[in-house]
Automatic annotation (TrEMBL), chain A:
This is Uncharacterized protein. InterPro entries: Single_hybrid_motif. The lineage of its organism: Bacteria, Pseudomonadati, Thermodesulfobacteriota, Thermodesulfobacteria, Thermodesulfobacteriales. It comes from the Bacteria.
From TrEMBL, chain B:
This is biotin carboxylase. Gene3D superfamilies: 3.40.50.20, ATP-grasp fold, A domain, ATP-grasp fold, B domain. InterPro entries: ACC_Biotin_Carboxylase, ATP-grasp, ATP_grasp_subdomain_1, BC-like_N, Biotin_carboxylation_dom, Biotin_COase_C, CPAse_ATP-bd, PreATP-grasp_dom_sf. Keywords: ATP-binding, Biotin, Ligase, Nucleotide-binding. Residues 116-337 form the ATP-grasp domain. GO terms for molecular function: ATP binding; biotin carboxylase activity; metal ion binding.
Length: 219, 463
């Protein structure tokens, strides 16, 4: 891997000048939007705690089949474009209800950096993905940045149109440094699944991550 | 009050149900997911609701209530054979009509193992194998050893077993083993797959009958105790993943192929056995009894599908009731809404042969890999003997959703005999134009060439 220092510096500069992202909050399913629990400009929090056990700020309630569900913020930020006209109405699935302007966290900046730096294994199709059982076992035991993947080794399983297809690592022996997907969630074609690097590059990556941690301290 | 049907499915079956409702003068409501926005079933429907998932009962029932529906048609796949869903539909505080069999029938016939047990009680032949789901690999290996021994004793030179997810279907979760040593690892793999896909890790083991034809019997029963059949179908031509690609009605044709057994007698036998089982459970909707036929003329019942099938229309094309053509989806809806059959078996007449071709975006050269991409051109010549069922628009590009099977269309061809139907099917395949691009830009391929090749093999036992 030829690490492009200039590109990395440009990336960090861009993140410094626009350190936020807009998240659309959509209805997860159909139902009646009973009540908004936030207003335009309200500051909300995403899930917190070591295990993300503290739920995010309640945003609105949705009732379906006599079950009232509170939709909570999945990221922290400020409420914008609240569609108050939906209150009391039946809404379809995936209806945009509001937006959250979310300041990037340290972890998100690190993720952006790694996407630009690592050798990425991207999703060949829009599909669901799983780690190959053997790789998953080794990562659980040894942790990321320590597990090697050899040429022709089964690394992922793609669940596409109800069929499961193994994905084999075609390059040289590398280290799995980052997982970019959540198992069983749909990943769009071209999106990164795994980030790999050579063993000798691991110390450099760790140094840049330390630098990011200094610049973007955990709030 | 006029009935209003919620069509709880997608694609071509949703379109056929819409058509049946229109012909019966019923209102209907369509549901769809975001990836299906460009499907014709969405474009053609006046009343539609976007939902999160076709498999989520809460979504369907929430829309049914909002749209004031009185009945739900599940189509095929998704929740069509989920007895819990059928039970909930009829037992909730605002009950709806479930357009399908009673939930108890779906439960009893939905389990392949239970069907085996019921069949055995009625002296209906079934494939040798386990009759209870297996969860333990040591027990699986012991059962496999017994079956290998039975096959060798029966004179099978290359005995093989099938290890299947007991809750599976549609060719999913089935693997083949040739050696006893393979049983444990394959059992573990199928069990894990079954758990992931069907939520039940039960596995069954069956003797593999190496040369066979896959036949079906189309039945229609009513809650008033009426029961008729619409003949047989042959679904032997499948992809290696055991998904049907060409279907023919009737299931055997002794004028077209020389069989070593009395084909008419065998068809009569499987129809009678199917009717016997249907009568025993008071079957009250459309349903399909699936059979496996050997070259020696032995028949084994495999399973029962308690729903409308993809291929039901070829049975309808060869059937006439009191000189009128039949639409089995209309019959299914009419019966579910309380109507009587108003005809008997003697009023149903059969004529000609119908062939269904399933056009699928798949790479038949690469293990039938399903393909995604965009269809840019899709057209065919019109003929009086041809019906094409498709949800793919012909007037604008269509992106194949990756969440579902890449089925593009069904072509149903009728001929006065099998030879004419075969020739016409070939004409359709020569004339159809499907063009498109994959996500990486290369041309999209389909299974048209495979269908052309396989048309020469229809109704014959595979070598």
């Amino acid at each position: 891997m030829a690490i492009d220092h200039l590109k990395i510096n440009q990336l960090l500069q861009r993140l410094r000048s626009r350190p936020y992202r807009i998240y659309e909050v959509k209805t997860p399913h159909t139902g009646y939007l009973r009540e908004f629990l936030v207003k335009e400009g309200t500051e909300v929090k995403g899930p917190r705690g070591k295990w993300r056990e503290i739920p995010g700020t309640p945003l609105f309630t949705l009732e379906r089949e006599k079950n009232l569900k509170t939709i909570k913020a999945r990221v922290s930020g400020t409420i914008h474009n609240l569609r108050t006209e939906l209150e009391g109405r039946f809404v379809e699935a995936e209806e945009v209800v509001l937006e959250i302007r979310h300041p990037l966290s340290q972890e998100e900046v690190i993720s952006e950096f790694l996407r630009e730096t690592l050798i990425l294994i991207t999703a060949p199709e829009t599909a669901r993905y799983l780690l190959a059982p053997e790789i998953e076992k080794r990562i659980r035991k040894e942790g990321l940045g320590k597990v090697f993947v050899k040429p022709n080794e089964e690394i992922l399983i793609m669940s596409f149109m109800k069929r499961e297809t193994p994905i084999v690592h075609t390059g040289e022996t590398m280290v799995i440094f980052r997982i970019f997907f959540t198992p069983q969630e749909v990943v769009t074609a071209g999106e990164p699944l795994l980030g790999l690097c050579l063993q000798e590059e691991v110390p450099y990556l760790e140094r840049v991550i330390s630098r990011i941690c200094e610049e973007w301290p955990e709030k | 009050m006029k009935d209003r049907v919620l069509i709880a499915n997608r694609g071509e079956i949703a379109l056929r149900i819409m058509e049946a409702c229109e012909e019966l003068g019923l209102d209907y409501v369509v549901v769809y997911t975001r990836p299906d926005e460009e499907s014709l079933h969405v474009r053609k429907a006046k009343r539609k609701y976007r939902i999160a998932d076709y498999r989520d009962p809460n979504e369907l029932l929430s829309v049914a209530d909002e749209a004031k529906c009185t009945a739900i048609h599940p189509g095929y796949g998704f929740l069509a054979e989920d007895f819990r869903f059928a039970r909930r539909v009829v037992k909730r505080s605002r009950p709806l009509t479930f357009i399908g069999p009673r939930w108890e029938v779906i439960r009893d016939l939905g389990s392949k193992l239970n069907v085996k047990r019921l069949a055995k009680e009625l002296d209906i032949p079934v494939i040798p194998g386990t009759t209870e789901p297996l969860y333990n690999e040591i027990e699986a290996e012991a059962r496999a050893e017994e079956l290998f021994e039975w096959l060798r004793e029966s004179g099978e030179e290359d005995p093989r077993l099938l290890i299947k997810a007991s809750a599976g279907g549609g060719g999913m979760g089935i693997e083949e083993v040739r050696e006893l040593e393979e049983v444990r690892p394959v059992f573990r793999r199928v069990r894990a797959y079954a758990k992931r896909l069907f939520g039940d890790e039960g596995v069954i083991i069956e003797a593999k009958i190496s040369r066979f034809q896959h036949l079906e019997v189309q039945l229609l029963g009513t809650p008033h105790g009426e029961l008729v059949h619409f003949g047989t179908r042959n679904c032997t031509i499948q992809s290696p993943g055991r998904q049907k690609r060409i279907e023919i009605a009737p299931g055997l044709d002794p004028q077209f192929v020389n069989y070593s057994f009395d084909a008419d007698a065998l068809l009569a036998e499987i129809i009678n056995h199917s009717l016997k089982l249907a009568e025993a459970v008071s079957y009250d909707s459309v349903g399909t009894w699936e059979w496996l036929i050997t070259p020696e003329g032995r028949a084994y019942l495999m399973e029962v599908n308690t729903r409308i099938q993809v291929e039901n229309e070829i049975s309808a094309k060869i059937s006439q009731v009191k000189s009128q053509t039949v639409n089995l989806i209309k019959e299914q809806i009419r019966i579910a809404l309380g109507d009587k059959l108003r005809y008997q078996q003697k009023d149903i007449h059969f004529s000609g042969t119908a062939i269904e071709l399933r056009l699928v975006a798949e790479d038949t050269q690469r293990n039938f890999k399903p393909l995604s991409g965009t269809i840019t051109r899709f057209s065919w010549e019109k003929h009086p003997w041809l019906t094409v069922r498709t949800h793919v628009p012909q007037d604008k590009p269509y992106t194949i959703p990756t969440e579902y099977d890449p089925n593009l269309a069904l072509a149903i061809v009728w001929g006065k005999d099998t030879k004419e139907a075969q020739q016409r099917a070939l004409v359709f395949l020569e004339e159809v134009i499907i063009e498109g691009k994959r996500s990486q830009g290369e041309p999209l391929v389909t299974n048209v060439s495979f269908l052309k090749n396989k048309l020469t093999e229809i109704l014959r036992f595979p070598e």
